[in-house]
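Input sequence (42 aa), recorded before submission:
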Amino acid sequence: MIVQINADAPDFEMPDFRGVSIKLSDFKSRKNVMLVFNRGFI
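Predicted structure, token format:
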């Protein structure tokens, strides 16, 4: 998937570190959201 600069991020869903499902759209009212993808995080 290619996202253009200054375009809205596509909505997606994935589990957090506790296994609770989180959607990017859950944070739509916030100005900034930081995503961290850790490979091999246990």
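Checked by second reader. The mean pLDDT is 85.
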